[in-house]
Amino acid sequence: MAFLSDTLARVKPSPTIAVTTKANELKAAGKDVIGLGAGEPDFDTPDHIKEAAKRAIDAGKTKYTAVDGMPELKKAICAKFERENGLTYTPAQVTVGTGGKQILYNALVATLNPGDEVLIPAPYWVSYPDMVLLAGGTPVAVAAGIETNFKLSPAALEAAITPKTKWFIFNSPSNPTGAGYTKAELKALTDVLMRHPHVWVMSDDMYEHLVFDDFEFCTPAQVEPGLYDRTLTCNGVSKAYAMTGWRIGYAAGPVELIKAMAKVQSQSTSNPSSISQHAALEALNGPQDFLGPFREAFQRRRNLVVDMLNACEGVTCPKPEGAFYVYPDISGCIGKTSAGGTKITDDEAFATALLEETGVAVVFGAAFGLSPNFRVSYATSDAVLKDACTRIQQFCASLT
């Protein structure tokens, strides 16, 4: 009898974490390495949020809270959805978890049965398919390539839906591409979903506040009120508020689903950190003026990286609407050989050779379900990005 679960054999470790770990190991060994793999803002958590956490500690608010979030935090989340998205929820429709990832996982565990399918536009965040597999479902990737600016077409969505489809996972702006759907583009997708009432929508809005130029964020239940009763709208404080390590995610949806998710959480982690919840309360209710400078810095970095990568031989890099990622296509590099003698057979070979020969760590596209590409996280300083992109330019120029 095997000791490890058969289910575990179906999934793989997170490639983004693996790349970051490898880069850190090389740095520790004295190598000159630039890590562009981690999806983590380089900004510090704003002071007023940190001070709120300190006050909570000093006030002794270090005990268990309600399993899926403090009442006052749930109230603040309801106010956020009303204020920013025009969505009305009650606290009974809200759940708080230990990061956005737990929220998504709880929902999948609470709803999936063997044979249930989950539609995931590709390229996708690396964890979506594996979470579906862990929950006993079947992930179904639906291609959204560079020819559509990495956005899923209504026809592709329609063609992928079957009687077994239970969820459609939607992420805008996207990790890994940064692509954001306009209201019209999203409405075209929700029109398809309205024709299939058995399909639920899981909207991952984690990068909501990180949008550029004149792009206006919107979320499915906001665009199509008819989807309200079968949509789980997910968000968190990790990215926009530079609170990745605080581990607070949240979602709102139908009461029956929220109760089921709370049951899962009650028998796994129980409540998120009480101190982190008080910090998140301040993040949502407190000053929001720092978001503007954060966005401006990320937009400047996006422009820098897009311009420099498009100057690379064999590389095409679309300009995304949000998040802090770009997802360049390297079709023009496939089949060539690096200066170090590596045959660039695919994007994994490209990323491996790039790291070994230049010290730049990126995540290869196959990890996100669409090749040949790689993902760059530009959540680091301008100077570091210029250095990294210069090295990538030199690497591409050396391919023969």
Strand order, largest beta sheet = 2-8-7-6-5-3-4
Gross geometry: globular
Gyration radius (Cα, Å) is 21 Å
N- and C-termini, Cα separation: 51 Å
Structural class per helix/strand content?
alpha/beta
In CATH's first tier, which class of the largest domain applies?
Answer: Alpha Beta
As a percent range, the share of strand residues is: 5-15%
The largest pleated sheet is described as: 7 strands, mixed
CATH superfamily of the largest domain: Type I PLP-dependent aspartate aminotransferase-like (Major domain)
CATH architect. name of the largest domain:
3-Layer(aba) Sandwich
What's the total count of β strands? 12
Helix content: 25-40%
Instruction: List segments where confidence is low: pLDDT < 50 over at least 5 consecutive residues.
Output: none
Supply the number of structural domains.
Answer: 2
What is the CATH topology descriptor of the largest domain?
Answer: Aspartate Aminotransferase, domain 2
InterPro entries: Aminotransferase_I/II_large, AspAT/PAT-like, NHTrfase_class1_PyrdxlP-BS, PyrdxlP-dep_Trfase, PyrdxlP-dep_Trfase_major, PyrdxlP-dep_Trfase_small
Family: Belongs to the class-I pyridoxal-phosphate-dependent aminotransferase family.
Protein name: Aminotransferase
Enzyme class: transferase
